[in-house]
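Late entry, written up from scratch paper. The run itself happened at the end of the previous shift, but nothing got recorded in the book at the time, so transcribing now.
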Amino acid sequence: MSYPHHGGPDDRRQRFEEVYAANRGPILGYVLRRTGSPHDAADVLAETFLTAWRRLDDVPPGDQARLWLYGVARRVLANQQRGEHRRSELAGRLRAELTTAYQAPEYAGELAGIAAAFRSLPEADRELLALVGWEGLDNGQAAAVLGCSRNAVRIRLHRARRRLASAIARQPTLPPQAGAAQPAGTAPPAGPSQHAGARQPASAPRPASASRPASAHVTNGGHA
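Output as recorded:
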């Protein structure tokens, strides 16, 4: 049933504000008792009143408006729960696939020292070196991912490589010559998808960098 309102935009806004003021508390209580978190409740409440605004001519007058809003909130909740169920199912499938398809890399000897040096770097350095060394991005592509200029990436990459080389030189597990032999352009140790011990799903293409040793040099362009 429709309850058309023939007033102007200001009258329409006033009617919505009256509906909202009279029913926000009861609808919020209804939603909070049926959701798992305040964030979810806020989303449902907002969607419920957004629907009321869009369909204001369908909102009945008086106390009937509250019942109508309960019905809208109920449908919004059902949609939210279906979406959450689908996301949970997908996450479960992905966890199962990764559990059977992936082994955490294990490093020994010099690789263990290089991996420890890499982990000791600031997060920003690790991310930049990984984008270049693992994902194989050039400076321009890395700049797009990080939201900065190509020149900024070039400068940050140079500094990150120098810090990595210094960290490698300080590793006690490496012989003295190992740290000295690592140039500033050394790539980070092989990532999860590149490690020789990793089992990848049959459908996953093997990264081009998978066959490169951890000591492969990375040029300023980002390719070994």
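The helical segments are 9-32, 38-54, 64-101, 110-119, 123-133, 139-146, 150-169, 176-181.
(Scratch paper discarded after transcription.)
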